[in-house]
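Quick start: what a row looks like.
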Amino acid sequence: MTFPVSAALGRALDALGHHTPTPVQQAAIPAILDGRDVWASAQTGSGKTYAFVLPILDRLSAREREVRALILVPTRELALQIADVVAHLGTPLKLCIAVGGASINPQMMALRGGADLVVATPGRLLDLVEKNALRLSSVEVLVLDEADRLLSLGFADELARVLALLPVRRQNLLFSATFPPAVQKLAADLLHDPIRIDIDPSAARADIAQRAIEVDADRRTMLLRHLLEAHAWSRVLVFVATRHAADHVASKLVRAGIAAAPLHGELSQGARTQTLEDFKEERLRVLVATDLAARGLDIVQLPAVVNYDLPRSPTDYVHRIGRTGRAGETGVAISFVTAESHDHFRLIEKRNHLALPRERLEGFEPVKLDVPRSDPNGGIKGKRMSKKDKLRARDNSR
């Protein structure tokens, strides 16, 4: 089966080595070309970006440089990655990126001649609208990439303000690996007679060897160093809970002679972009990141992911481990389970239909895990997002 797009896009895809559409692309592209709303849930690494970018580029032709397609994303990194995909397809459409973490003036200058397609984080998009740098009254297609994150409480206010600026009659496309129950009603209310696409995630997870290692919290860095030595992974993405933890763990690894760096929302956009580039080009062996790196980022042939801290949300576990084992590659995802996080990991397993054996490595056997724990909430905060979590989500969007 070939891609149902124009000859020019087909040639660009061939040059990039994309010859056969993935299941989500097979299902989504014809529906989008027919003008249908689409609600697509497919595993990480399944080709969702091409599934909505290709039909948008195929449908739109350069006209009066009005914004006719808007792609909203939760993080700056994902916006830049989508823009890179568009650039490699060689479209004549004018694309503008609207993300925080960088001066707004160059983005305003880029918009002076108009744009056909805008890829944006909600916060910076609203900044540009308030400065009269762009109008959204001509938008024909709205894409929410990592839609569950954009529909969550952390982005609710900003998303509502953006939607109020858009035409009522438009095509809506929602893409994500997960759609937890808390956002499904919001998604349904946004769409009109949508095509539902649900790609079974089990095939992708089969390419990821998931492990759970019990360890005391204060020995996690030592265990991480041991795993790096034992497995000789070329690169490892390590997830932590806070910016402070990212700086702290990366600093410890550097002092041990391991090429490592932190990635979090407090870094400038230039620093974040350079750090990701260094990691992708294997100038860094370990990237210690907050959940900023859990969504959408495509790091080719990443052999391992380590949950140094467990994700707050069971849904985010799926996004984190999906950074490895992408596009037919194999990978390993290791979670450190401490006395404090033991109940929460059980909840993660329950919500994701998992039952992982607990491992104890020689020399790192925990001494605190045998303390009885009976937290009925699984060691996790209530369902309502805390003020701190809302601010963290908003920080990543600006």
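That is the whole record. The chain is about 40% helix and 15% strand. The radius of gyration is 21 Å.
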